[in-house]
Amino acid sequence: MYSLGIDFGTSGARAIAISNSARAEPIQCSVAGASESGEKLAKAWKQQLWTLLGGLPVAVRRALGAIAINGTSSTVLLGTVTGQVMAGPLMYNDDRGRAGLKEFSPLVAATSGARSATSTLAKVWWWRSDRFGGQWSGSTDAPLIFHQADWLSFLLHGQLQLGKNPRAISDYHNALKLGYDPVRLAYPESLQAADFGISLPQVVAPGSVIGEILPAIAQKFAINPACKIIAGTTDSIAAFLASGASQPGEAVTSLGSTLVLKQLSTVPVNAPDLGIYSHRLGDRWLVGGASNTGGAVLSHFFSSAELNRLSQEIAPANPSPYDYYPLLKSGERFPVSDPDLAPRLAPRPESDRDFLHGMLEGVARIEAQGYKRLAELGADPLTSIQTAGGGANNSTWTKIRQRYFAVPVTVAAQTEAAYGSAQLAAIAQSQTQTL
Q1: Cα–Cα distances in angstroms (integers) from residue 417 to residues 204, 221, 274, 301, 309, in the given order
Q2: Dmax over Cα atoms in the chain, in whole Å?
Q3: What gap in Å lies between CA 198 and CA 192, rounded to an integer?
Q4: For 39-67, what is the HEC assignment?
Q5: 44, 50, 51, 57: CA torsion to nearest 10
Q6: Which residues of 123-156 are buried (b: 16+ CB within 10 A; e: fewer)?
Q7: pTM of the model
Q8: Are the C-beta atoms of residues 361 and 319 closer than 8 Å to each other?
Q9: For residue range 286-310, what is the model confidence (pLDDT) as tens digits?
Q10: Model confidence over 303-333: pLDDT tens digits?
Q11: Which helix or strand (DSSP H or E) is residue 90 part of?
């Protein structure tokens, strides 16, 4: 039997199937990211999902035992009970709800990750406000909140929490920025009592079995009809799971389109004003935050070929003299939370090599500042950093980053978030946990 992990990240979608036999090599396929927006983006995600499933060898599809999907944190849409899109999607970095911060923040704990201009709760608050214009007025059904991973999983299992007000099914990693309390494993009473006119998702543990794949989907792709669909997670947590890190103090930096830090800790650390929050991971906590800096800034200025060539020309042992804070536009989440923080990419030297060196150094400096913040706020002492994401393949960047840390900075053996989701699905296969 195989377990399938699917990763919907900021740069594209990937699928990795792993066999229950440790001797079998993972099977991978991927598709490029979508450039659409609004409802067209959701349709593009759906097509990407079908492309990934169809791209697997038939023998693997027939032997699939479980599927788990991860998506970008706080990317969300509103949908109907049949999964039709009513509004959105709004992406992880969309801050249109910032004007309501003072209004919705009292609904959640002072340490909640929902207290952010880009949180899921901020987006929901914006949707229910007059600015949305009542797009669902006249509908007899309250809209359902689907995080990206929730909606894509729903396309495969079709399950809802039924009752007077049906609800989508989410996991407590994705639901953190909606205001779900991972300590109490419940929504705050104040949030439940708020009149959103929108149904909050039912929240289950990541790795829970939601149900079997829909018969029509199983038939369409020749997938084992007994294949289980598993509650997923976020892309950065999936990358952490893929690394195999398991001890307090071990960390994973995801160098993708954005910079994401995750460190395992025995205690939770939450500082929403600094963009820091904690996810429950068994009896431990995965603390960290996500910066808007990262690979997207680099690819804005350089092609992949240029990045590879110029990186090889950089002497990583020599610090760059440029004090850059690489951003594509104003606004930062972590290690400082400032929606007005402006990019700092001047002066630009004549040499493209030196310009890239300054940007790589700038991202490394932000990463170091992030881990320093976590330590100052009580996270376990940092013992190692593994690197995931596309930036993990840049050895020059790894050497630059190593100068900022007294602990080893290495490339994770498995760097794909899809691999972490596949592991989540594999664990669920071996258990009997069901809703």
Answers
A1: 20, 23, 25, 26, 26
A2: 65
A3: 11
A4: HHHHHHHHHHHHHHHHHCCHHHHHCEEEE
A5: 170
A6: bbbbbbeeeeeeebeeeeebbbbbbbbbbbbbbb
A7: 0.84
A8: yes
A9: 999 989 999 999 999 999 999 999 9
A10: 999 999 999 999 999 999 999 999 999 999 8
A11: strand 85-90
